Amino acid sequence: MSLQDRLNELKATVLTQINTTDHLDHLNEIRVNTLGKKGPITEVLRGMKDISAEERPVIGAFANEIRDLLKDALELKKAELENLALNAQLAAEKIDVSLPGTDFEPGHAHVIQQIIEQLENQFLGMGYQIAEGPEVEEDKYNFEMMNLPKDHPARDMQDTFYITPEILMRTQTSPVQARTMEKHDFTQGALKMISPGRVYRRDTDDATHSHQFHQVEGLVIDKHITMADLKGTLLKVAQELFGEKHQIRLRPSYFPFTEPSVEVDVSWNDVDENTKPEDIEWIEVLGAGMVHPNVLKMAGVDPEVYGGFAFGLGPDRFAMLKYGVDDIRNFYLNDVRFLSQFK
Ligand code: PHE
Fold first, then answer.
1. Ligand 1 centre and the CA of 305: distance in Å?
2. How far is residue 55's CA from residue 36's CA, in Å, rounded to a whole number?
3. Which of 14, 81, 242, 304 has the fewest CB within 10 Å, making it most exposed?
4. Residue 30 Cα, ligand 1 centroid: separation in angstroms?
5. Alpha helix (H) ranges present in the chain?
6. Are residues 139 and 65 in the same domain?
7. What main location does UniProt list (predicted)?
8. 259 is in an annotated binding site
């Protein structure tokens, strides 16, 4: 076979290979096999030494022509395959801008915190200040200044986490009463404060008890405060929180730091002038009373001049009543399925 024929044959074979491949890797293989140092074109050119001097430039030019032609064909095919690959990739990575986006789930205040904030807003609206006290408290404020000396039997009402004999986890927010009274300048007017916060008791956790829960303390001290002021205030708060048709009732009770002391019930059903007393369902929601003279005295307030009322309510219990939650532990398990109901 003449060199020309071999070159023509080579051209035909390689062009077929190029035309039938659809892989860039394969195309590259063809290129290397055809044009590389050990490829057929190089080999043909190597055979030039055996042909006549007249033929040599003709064959040489023809070989170069074939090589250039194949090079061009390879380039063209490469561009074509790259273009196909790019289009395929673009199609695969296409973004459908009309698809719904990923939902953000912004958090929200915990249901207990919501109740506390609602109470804060109500009391701020009635001219109260919001006071804070430490959760790690002195025995002195938690008990002694609340008229509960060391051996007082009523200390048993609140089983206590002691840290040292004088330092404890506060069992109630009542110590904030003593702390604010001590600091208050009565020449500037009445003291009206609420103090929300966490309290701790050595209780075994069950559906209605938690070793840690919340209280909102309330205290009003001025010159002419009566039990009617206490009742009016609590009625207003209960109606704001539970609804206009709810009533409250006071029952005599005992707390060492108030005298007289009351427990306050809220009606669970709606009440109007036609409701018979025996049809009202009462639920206990808080403790309250007129501040004991000893408590005033110990905080440096003259009980002959000043007096007032105090109350302590449990937002956990309020939340349970308001939303029909029957297990207090739900508030502390941090299960978002439970908590997100209260958005
Ligand atoms: N501190 C009382 C308790 O935890 C509640 C209370 C507060 C009662 C203020 C009367 C006055 O049980």
1. 23
2. 24
3. 304
4. 92
5. 3-20, 24-35, 40-46, 55-92, 111-125, 139-142, 175-183, 227-242, 293-298, 315-323, 336-339
6. no
7. cytoplasm
8. yes
Q: Whose CA is nearest to atom 10 of ligand 1?
A: 288
Cα(276)–Cα(264) distance, rounded to whole angstroms? 19
64 and 178 both lie in a single domain: no
Q: Which residue has the tokens 């009462």?
A: 282
Is the same domain home to 122 and 228? yes
| Token code pair at residue 220 | 């009003």
The answer, yes or no, to whether any atom of ligand 1 lies below 6 A from the CB of 128, is no
Q: Residue 62 — left, alpha, or beta (φ > 0 → left; ψ -120 to 50 → alpha)?
A: alpha
Same domain, yes or no, for 158 and 49?
no
Along the chain (343 residues), what's the average pLDDT of each consecutive run of 10 residues? 84 91 90 85 79 84 88 92 92 88 89 95 96 98 96 89 96 98 96 98 91 97 97 92 90 97 90 90 92 98 97 92 90 93 91
Q: Could you tell me if the CB of 175 is within 6 A of ligand 1? A: no
Residues 221, 120 share a domain: yes
Give the predicted TM-score (pTM) of the model.
Answer: 0.71
Bin 154: left if φ > 0, else alpha if -120 < ψ < 50, else beta. alpha
Instruction: State the total domains in the chain.
Output: 2
